[in-house]
Model the fold of this input.
Amino acid sequence: MGDWLALSDLALPGGDTRPLEQGLFICETALPLGEGSVLLQWQDGPQRSFSIFADPRAGIVVLHRAGQLVRRHVLPGPLPFGQGSARITYGWSRHTGAWRLSYGRIGLGEECTIAGVGPIALSPHELAGLCRRDGAALRHRSLLWFGVTQGARPPERAPWLGLRTPVQTARGPVAAGALRVGELVRTADSGLQPVLRVNRLRLPSRGSFAPVILRAPFLGQGSDVLLSADQLVVLSGAEVEYMFGVEEVLVSAGALANGTIGRLDGRQAAIDCVALDLGLPELLLVDGLRLLSHGALAEPPLQVLLPYEAQQLVSLMARRSLFGAA
Done:
């Protein structure tokens, strides 16, 4: 789970009604939304409920009931709903007695915020009810995912590999999810290297956290590979040499999600995945691809393209005859 206390569709134990000292509820939704949309609504009898309401003109409303206490927190509109996707966050602290509600469209650098005092803190019991997959909580069709963390800000995205991603090892290809500390994996430049740490994660996998499927055989791999959009992938070929004067560069997998080489995969709200730490940044051999290992703070072995550079490179690659294998 990492920094997440709860995530959409993740089964959690219920029954603990003690309020969390602090937390941050986060949800992402597809736009546009219609007028008066109830994004999320959970109720446990007449005494416990939690809901989020969104309207372009009225704004965002968080309604929370716990026994005799009822709180209605409002971020008044009008708000810039428009197109794309948006993030709503609701944070609380019992220590300071404060709450904060914000809204913004993802990728545009905008944030509308309001703060106040006197929140009701969510409890593990409520989180369990919200996350259940049996319909206990009503979810709007535009709701992409939601989660709760104890941090003051949403956790950052991170590079990772899908559990079934075949990593080359001393004993042949092994699914990333089956690797253990000490396993010898093959690298492009340093031969066999031991895995020092396997970070097992459960993360959102829609909206701004959506992973990428790199489709075979466009980059030389034998099968489709599921990766984080932040995972760095080696690209080579005539286009790389023409644009950057080097034989190879590193590009985030998200830049390759053009619909043909790769595509975003938002089929599930949360995903289990792993990050492999070899100590220093190494190029893992993965079914014909070379992927940068995780966890290392040292400089990567190749130039890492900036987003606009990666977009230009992928556009140039697209002009090659029907995206032939790289």
Q: What stands out?
A: The CA atoms of residues 200 and 274 lie 5 Å apart. The chain has a mean pLDDT of 90. Residues 307-318 form the longest helix (12 residues).
